From TrEMBL:
Limits of the YCII-related domain: 1-111
Protein species of origin: Frankia nepalensis
Protein known as: YCII-related domain-containing protein
Family: Belongs to the YciI family.
Database matches in InterPro entries: Dimeric_a/b-barrel, YCII
Length: 128
């Protein structure tokens, strides 16, 4: 099963301060370990929200808001797609990712919906 791991950003990063060289090194080790285990499919960090935009559609109206956005703790700072046997394994990789950050991050894990959804046609995530 494929899962998306999303790490939330923080006020320091949103202010334009990159992670420390030590954190970059630990992240490199974690990513190398996940790749060697055959779990990591893709991983990328995101720029601060000041480099982005938010598009909202409501009642037939489209609005575009340029960043930065308030509430940094609600913003995604990085993503990784992983391949795991089940949610329990995906959560373990998410836990290890949080440990790399000295417990100073929030990680959200979501299973990627496939055609027919998890469990087959008509199951949760079946958007066909």
């Amino acid at each position: 099963m494929r899962f998306l791991m999303m790490s939330k950003t923080n006020e320091d990063f949103e202010a334009g301060n990159p992670p420390s060289p030590e954190l970059f090194a630990r992240m490199g080790e974690f990513m190398a370990e996940a790749a060697a285990a055959g779990v990591l499919l893709q991983a990328d960090g995101l720029l601060p929200s000041s480099a982005g935009a938010r598009i909202t559609a409501q009642d037939g109206e489209i609005s575009v808001t340029d960043g930065p956005f308030a509430e940094a703790k609600e913003l995604v700072g990085g993503i990784a797609f992983i391949e795991a046997r089940d949610l329990a394994e995906a959560k373990e990789w998410g836990r290890r990712f949080a440990v790399v950050h000295d417990g100073g991050c929030e990680v959200e894990i979501r299973q990627v919906a496939a055609p027919g959804g998890p469990g087959g046609p008509g199951g949760p995530g079946d958007f066909s």
